[in-house]
């Protein structure tokens, strides 16, 4: 049995323009748009665009929150551009905490690989959903809701969050409020916090005003 | 010129099943799903499903924040179900404030009709975007980002936010943190706020623990 | 309490490529695509990209329809690019009318701020949905359906339509039919209108043939 | 080589709830929602849900427009529910015409199988795009824009439109305007047509008022 | 009755930036992104961008599978870019076959115009759905599932598949497995096929290793 | 400072219908639709709907492929319904293999936690993308493309795939072809495989005909 050059189809396809198909590896040098980065020319795509090794390295947790988050979003991992998914790595030393934050553009599923993590989110009706997660547990945090993770044991914890977007975004509450030049008075007015409390956290986080 | 019953088309269509077309007015008694409420039977739909008068009435601002928000989301206004849009009304008495909040499911455009409003949002990189809005101004708050509105003058202010979803959601920061039974210690750990500050706001907002 | 440079996360993020996150302010000079305009470089974005003042100015209604529509779509208001929402302003002098039209790409919610407006749309099954709207009323026009607005009183009316897309499009029926060079005979054949009627409207609207 | 019952996977899957996967054949008796009809129970699905023979039968063109449209939308063809696509059949006798209409919920590609068809659409800027299509030609009509098809020869024409939605909708201009009880005066005001013209078409199409 | 230049609206619109509306004809020379090709400048768009005549020509079936597929995807037909739909032509000589394949990015509806076609797809639970299609029949193949078409009679068959995406993609099973340099041993391990079988097909299709 | 019951907003919201917001935990007893399962009544939702522990248990790999896949899709894990994401667990004993398969409804990112995995996918143009993944590596498999995973070392491997859909689907090539009653002759015709090879695999996998 012999198959000569046979599909008219393939002749047509190969004589056509580079097609928008299969994947769209991020080309960081071309313009980006609401749907993501522009696509790398197919001829320049290699398997390494689809593989990312940065999550294999523990983040540095010798900091005040004893925690580190290492993202593999479209901005770091070009292969996920346009594909509706991304990952990150979360290291929590004993006592470590990822303070209240949201992902404006994605839901998250957290997978615990090592240690114990107390995780929680708060729904729009202010109900908190809290759980102590053990190795192998997963927990979903619906898009845009405030949530946190805390090391729940005396040993280092390791977890991997997955996101429903290649660019989930991350807004950390304390940073949004205190790590900029928003006037203390305005923050007080819009959070009901005391001015002294605000100034204390601005000082700690490097905010001004 | 005479047009007898002419389109085979219409005979077919009318002999078919109630079709999923044009609109899907919310039927609050049937199950809802990820895309919204079930659709009311076409025969039961009237023009009043597409009109809502609740935003014509000023909200009651005789409260501690001197402000009121009146929603016309899919849960109140059945005609917008499935159509990717909804509105609300915002009344701000002098000194009124809508404290920091997010809409997990929608971007917002605020339209100022009366008075002056100081509005702002904070981006993921912690940059604040602030503006004093006058009558006729509009400002967009991208999906999921923390934002606020404050009456910027000595007279009542009136504004109408539009949302890119029939169910934008609303998470008010202070309520999410303090108006529930989250343990003070856990909040302290995940917000860096002092316990005294937390207890004070829990007391004011009706939270416990 | 002191927070040294602490999140590995942020070091990583800031050393990365400009990310597709939060918002995508329109860059009118770069290519656009099916999802909207390309994004402005983050460093060039200012609060003024998110605020638009053009709707604060009454449109000029000294014209034959005694009406004016002022859009704040992505083409005018760069901040809404990619965010699924836009607004416009509608001025109707006494006797003013926005003739039958559609928005091919969006549903609309009309908010009446002043005066009285008779609004209506026609569903696919030819049922008209009509309502006289008063100040504060809102009415939804599902995507793509023919609808109109008419000043229903003796005083000027003001309304603000919101749209479920940053680029809703607008196709005005009379303009589509008569304000171009479509042959009168072809229009007659595809609308059942009399040739004399077509020629009269072509003359009024500047059409030819 | 022998493969015993081997995947833990499949045991788990089969012990689970009927899954939302692969397809969602319309169950016309359960509630529908913004995303389409509810899904038939998997056990009741047969190959005949995925096959439709109604387009093999010529529509009856012995009517005033000498044309017939036969739809295979989700309301007729349950297998396309939720799959983003549907078809129809278009028969045009000599002199036949499908008058100006829109599909509020889909773009259309028309495929000409027999005869000659003059087709056209009008863009938002009122530019008409017209073409005489021969056998084998395809033409795309972007979502929501006014378009028409006319038999361009002396022989019957046959074409098949495809749509980018299982429920594209169909709004025929003349029917929307004249085949209902909209007041003649209101139509005149919102279309600029003469009252006599309106009454004539109301009479022909069965409208009142 | 005279209509002077009247809509403030149009002055605004025409003084604005080229808008993202109505359609986005593919510009093959600009970058593409996850949502498709960049848009051609409106001024360069003509009706020929919306019409494609390539499907009017029979594909060359003098090959081993006695079949030909001619695509009219966004890469060939610029007018469908961003519109969620595309078409193709399928010619099957007597004995012709389109072997098992998937479209990773779209559902398909096949329309039989001439001859008889045995078509089938296999669902995730391994159930095959098979049907012999006659002229005028349509069959839907849900997104991503393996399917095939075989000429079911002694005469040439002609069919037109429609797709729910402008870039549906096409992965032909035999080509994916055998028309490249994947090691025979690896294929054997991941398909359970015998090495001799693999080598035979690699030889026929031009694969190596 | 005291905050009496203050937001008009909340009174309105609480007097309204159960809203479509935040999340839509699967109610397996109500109808499902194209967008997923119906939502559980908010009052019945608990934190356990958002947590799943099934991935903490190693799958049973004492089978012919020495591998096991344990899904946490919407059918098993109700909290991810409607949220665009799901996970699974993959156990590969030494010599284990997940044969060629596709996910018709999702892209996948595989995260390697233990051992070494040789993974690969084939693009539409038949190019294979292969990589040996070590602990901590992630690799993305674009939606709908054929891919496989093989234990690349002499020790057990553990990995967690994430998916861009709560119901990604899974079509295993060998099962789709051989584990059903498709006629050997038809399979031969549509795969180019020899009848003997087909019969051998049908025998091994439990297929007939």
Automatic annotation (TrEMBL), chains A, B, C, D, E, F:
Boundaries of every Cupin type-1 domain copy: 53-199
InterPro entries: Cupin_1 (IPR006045), Germin (IPR001929), Germin_Mn-BS (IPR019780), RmlC-like_jellyroll (IPR014710), RmlC_Cupin_sf (IPR011051)
TM regions (residue ranges): none
Cellular location(s): Secreted, Cell wall; Secreted, Extracellular space, Apoplast
Pfam families assigned: Cupin_1
SUPFAM superfamilies: RmlC-like cupins (SSF51182)
Protein residues bound to Mn(2+): 101, 103, 108, 147
GO molecular function, a single term: manganese ion binding
SS bonds (residue pairs): 24-39
Endpoints of the signal sequence: 1-18
GO biological process annotation, one example: auxin-activated signaling pathway
Matches recorded under SMART domains: Cupin_1
GO CC terms, sorted: apoplast
Keyword list, A-Z: Apoplast, Auxin signaling pathway, Cell wall, Disulfide bond, Glycoprotein, Manganese, Metal-binding, Receptor, Secreted, Signal
Its biological purpose: Probable receptor for the plant growth-promoting hormone auxin.
Protein name: Germin-like protein
């Amino acid at each position: 049995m012999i198959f000569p050059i046979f599909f008219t189809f393939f002749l047509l396809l190969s004589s056509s323009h580079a097609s928008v198909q299969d994947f769209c590896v991020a080309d960081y040098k071309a313009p980006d748009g609401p749907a993501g980065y522009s696509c790398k020319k197919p001829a320049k795509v290699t398997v390494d665009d689809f593989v990312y090794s940065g999550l294999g390295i523990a983040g540095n947790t010798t900091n005040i929150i004893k925690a580190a988050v290492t993202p593999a979003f479209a901005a770091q991992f070009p292969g996920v551009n346009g594909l509706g998914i991304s990952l990150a790595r979360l290291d929590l030393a004993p006592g470590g905490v990822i303070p209240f934050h949201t992902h404006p553009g994605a839901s998250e599923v957290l997978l615990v690989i090592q240690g114990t993590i107390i995780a929680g989110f708060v729904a729009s009706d202010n109900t908190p959903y809290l759980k102590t997660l053990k190795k192998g547990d997963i927990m979903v945090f619906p898009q845009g809701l405030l949530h946190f993770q805390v090391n729940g044991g005396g040993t280092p914890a390791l977890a991997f969050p997955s996101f429903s977007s290649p660019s989930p975004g991350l807004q950390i509450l304390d940073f949004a409020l205190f790590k900029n030049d928003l006037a203390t008075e305005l923050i007080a007015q819009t959070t009901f916090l005391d001015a002294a409390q605000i100034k204390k956290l601005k000082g700690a986080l490097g905010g001004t005003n």
